[in-house]
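Two proteins were folded this term; both appear here.
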Amino acid sequence: MTSTAPLPPEELLRGAGLRVTATRTAALHALEETRHATADDVLGSVRARLGTVSVQAVYDVLHALTDAGLLRRIEPAGHPARYERRTGDNHHHVVCRSCGAIGDVDCAVGHAPCLTPSDDNGFAVETAEVTYWGLCPRCR
C-alpha cells in the first residue's frame, strides 16, 4: 500500500487485518510526523502521546507494522534502522555522510537498470534498494 495520501491510522490497521491499539495508532502518527524515524524517535513520540510505554512494545509494533506492509524499514550503512510510511513504490534514498539526514528519491523513470541485475540467480526481483550518499544542503 502506497501512502501518498495517508489514511487514518485506524483504517490502515484494519485494512491490514491488525487490531487497532493505542500503541500502533500512536506509532503510525509518529511516522506521519517524522519521515525516516528511528525506533528511538518513534518511542519518544509514542510516550509523548500515551505516557508510559515500554521500549519492547514499540519494537514489537514496528516489527508488526513492517511485516504487515504498513511501514518500510531501511538501514543505511553505519546508521540506525529507520522506518517510513511510504511503501510499495520502490523509491530510493539519499543520505548525508555528515549529519545522516535522509531524503526520498523516486525510482528512475523509463529504463530502471536497478531492477535488471546482470544475473538474478533465479530470483524474481521485486524491488531494489539504492542508496545515494553525499552532503545535504545544510552540511555543504
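Next, the second protein.
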Amino acid sequence: MNIPEWTKPALMGAGAGAIALAIVGFSWGGWMTATAAEKMSDKGSTAAVATALTPYCLQNAKNDPMASGVMAELKAANSYKRRSIVEEAGWATPLGAETPDRALAETCLDALDVNT
C-alpha cells in the first residue's frame, strides 16, 4: 500500500491543531471538565440554599432570649470569629440538623449587618 507523501505532515498538523484547540478551549473558551462543573454546581446550590434559609436564621436570632448578648459579642469580635459565634448560638442550625451550616452562618452574618 502506498501512502501519499503529504499524509504524515497532514496528520501532524491535525494533531497539533487539536492540541492547540484544547488549550485555547480550556483556557479562554470556558470549557471545563465534568468534575469542575460538578464542583461549581455544588458551590452554587449550597449558596442558594443558604440564601433561602437566611430568613430562618434571622428569625432564630429574633426569637433568642440571649440575642442582645450574642449581638454584643458579635460586634466586639473579630471578623474571622463571628461565624463561629452565630454557629454556637444555634441560629445557623437548620431544622432537623444536628450541626450548624457554615454557609448559612455566613449569609446570616451578612443579613445581620454586624459590621456597622
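The chain has five helices and no strands. The chain has a mean pLDDT of 89. These notes refer to the second protein only.
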